[in-house]
Design goal:
Layout (H helix, E strand, L loop, with lengths): L9 E6 L4 H9 L4 E5 L7 H14 L2 E5 L5 H10 L3 E4 L5 H11 L23 H11 L1 E6 L2 H5 L1 H7 L5 E4 L1 H7 L9 H16 L3 E6 L2 H9 L4 E4 L2 H15 L5
Parallel strand pairs: 1-2, 1-8, 2-3, 3-4, 4-5, 5-6, 6-7, 7-8
Amino acid sequence: MADKANKTMRLGPFVKLARPEMIEAIALAGFDFAVVDMEHVALGQNNLYPLVLAAERRGLQLIVRIPVREEPYFKWCLDLGIRHIQVPFVETAQDVDYCIKNSYFSPQGLRGLCRFVRAADFSAKPRAEYLAEANEKTQLILQVEGQRGVANLPEILAAAPKGSTLFIGPYDLSQSLGKPGQIWDPEVVGQIEAIVSKCAAKNIGVGIFTDTPEGIGFWAERGVSLIEYASDLNIFMSGAAWLRKEAKLPQ
């Protein structure tokens, strides 16, 4: 696996086939992280545990995109030991405050506190160590993907906690501009570039989704540090199509 410490841009796929074998394969392929997608895949909290174990076994950072901004999803993920929570459709500073409240213990937030969970080694970890470590290592990835979020971007950035990332969802953003799916339309690209510049001015990291190799290079050159790519199944199908073509098999 390549030395990741020297990278300024991190790359990883969305996980649609939520199996521990897939998580291990993503790690062995050299990706920096995997994004378990609870928003667009029918996954429950019980599906997450084997994925977490596989990621820990292979030293792969695991991000979970929760389906909606509701307290139980934050609690289930964090109590399981997941540190990186991606939240869809953040539109206001109040939305950010809600995420903070449910992701951090006091004094930063009011996350439900139980020290008999996996994240606390089922109570084997000293209480003070658990509380401090949880607040220090939890990171939020806040998705802005509509015009209301864009309009409220200054307030969202001001409310974002230290270490968080502002993530841009280009497909939903294109739809909010009346150009659904046209993620390379000049107006869509221009709006994304403006968001990236505003985040850079506030020293807040930026993430984005792309589904082409060219998109990876395009956004990396513009300072985007977290690039979430297509999906595990998309990568498999692309590889299969390439293999059939190289083997000159009938299409």
